[in-house]
Amino acid sequence: MDLNIQQEIGSVGDSLRAAFHDLFSIWLAIQVAEIGIAAAVAAVTARVVQRRVKLIDLTMGWPAPLRLFARLLLEHIGTPVFIMAVAIMHVGMLSATWPSRSYLLGVAESLATAWFVIAMLAGLIRNQFVYRLVAVSAWTIAALSILGLLQPTMTALDSVAVVVGGLRISPLLVIKTAVLLMLALRAASAASDFLDRRVRSASELTPSIQVLIGKVTRLLLITFAILITLSTVGIDLSALALFSGAVGVGIGFGLQKIVSNLVSGIILLADKSIKPGDVISVGDQFGWVTNMGARYISVDTRDGREILIPNEDFVTQQVVNWSYSNYKMMLKATFGVSYDSNPHKVREIAVAAALKVPRVIKEPMPVCYFEEFGDSSLNFSLRYWIADPENGIVTVRAPVMLALWDAFNEAGIEIPFPQRDLNPRKPFKVVIERDDRGPPAAG
Question: Residue 38's closest CA among 143, 111, 118?
């Protein structure tokens, strides 16, 4: 075992023996009692203040940072009260007896101060999981530093390690890498969100270019964050050659679909064939594009469902983009009328009925075609255009059909139903049976 490690373990042992000896000291009991009294005073004070202070009324009209600071201060108001109470007791103990007999009070004061500062700073993080993780990690480091155990702990964590491909991996390296990587990724994500908002506010850029710039920027920032973290903790990137080779093999075999969807998404954003807001149909799925991700495109069908279609399908399959060059979309309604009707009049009535629906546009004008002589009806097709397909198709088809029904009823035009005539080739006998039993007798 290394001499430095032995010395560190020896110092830790001496500290533990001293602490064990202090457990039987009356001054330790006094300090614990004082800390308990300070905690009780802080809890009561915090409850009273939190009940009486109306934070919303007090901070009305304040800037957002000040409102956030006031909310955090009110949530942790008990901690500064505890710090003040312990500090007063600590000063009193120092003036009355030896400093060594009030050591625990000083430690409690330092730990509480560190926790309050860390809680106020970490409170700026909106994500609750990240907030707790950062707060607990930072306070643990501060506590070890205050107790003088930070360096021995780091030495102990670094003493156990394994070497993989020329890379020495220890618990200390893993912890440092995880913490720094989390902070770097958090900073990269915040910077990416800020730049993405700035790009989306640029009206001169098309939606697809905005999404492309946002995705590429996020990818570059995350890559830089990972590389900077690895360099900071002292990991030689050349030592990762073995892992990069394994990742390359994994991409070639197990991740080919993910890579295909990622590349397909970049192609779609670059060639602008699909962009957010487009009305599309893929196979039997119809809707409009709400979001373009790295792996899939989200399509809203206006029936409560949101379909996630892989990017690869948009590259390898036939896709109908109803709004590629413009948002005008043609719809078709077929119907039949009786042979007693005038086809010219039917066409005029159908066009006029379609124009009564608000969403049907006048340019191009609706047109009605006489298509065929059916078995029991004259068959027509009405073709009309709308300019807002993202608002739904059924919501305009139904009003058009109702308008046709009302218009034909008003004009006395009959919409027939199939009828069949029965012409027997040979005479046949029809037997009609009659029930002569009569009604049942009353019992």
Answer: 111
Q: Looking at residue 443, what is its pLDDT?
A: 46
Q: Specify the pLDDT at position 181.
A: 83
* Whole-number pLDDT of residue 164: 65
Round to whole Å and give the CA distance between 177 and 182: 8
What is the three-class DSSP state of 431? coil
* Domain assignments of the chain as residue spans, ordered by start: 3-159, 169-236, 263-321, 329-411
Q: Which long-range contacts (CB under 8 A, 24 or more apart) does 232-240 make?
A: 232/180, 233/173, 233/176, 233/177, 233/180, 234/173, 235/167, 235/173, 235/177, 236/166, 236/167, 239/165, 239/166, 239/167, 240/165, 240/167
- pLDDT at position 244, please? 60
Tokens describing residue 199: 């790009």
From the list 103, 102, 109, 96, the residue with the least C-alpha distance to 39 is 109
- Quote the pLDDT of residue 383: 93
Q: What is the dihedral of CA 43, 44, 47, 53, to 10 degrees?
A: -120
Beta bridge partners of 321: 280
In this prediction, residue 360 carries a pLDDT of 92
159-181 burial by CB neighbour count: b if 16+ within 10 A, else e?
Answer: beeeeeeebeeeebbeebbebbb
Please give the Cα distance from 386 to 323 (Å, whole number).
11
Cα-Cα end-to-end distance for the chain: 113
Fold assignment, 263-321: SH3 type barrels. (2.30.30)
Q: How far is CA 182 from CA 88, 120, 169, 243, in A?
A: 39, 19, 18, 21
Full-model pTM = 0.46
Distance between CA atoms of residues 323 and 300, nearest Å: 15
- Describe the chain by its helix, strand, coil percentages, rounded to 5: 60, 15, 30
Q: Is 233 exposed, middle or buried (0-12, 13-18, 19+ CB in 10 A)?
A: middle
Which tokens is 288 given?
A: 């409009």
d(CA 402, CA 396) in angstroms, rounded, equals: 10
C-alpha closest to that of 228 among 181, 165, 178: 181
Which residue ranges of the chain lie beneath pLDDT 50? 1-3, 5, 443
Do 142 and 114 form a contact (C-beta atoms < 8 A)? yes
388: Cα separation from own chain's centroid: 28
329-411 classified as CATH 3.20.20.70: no
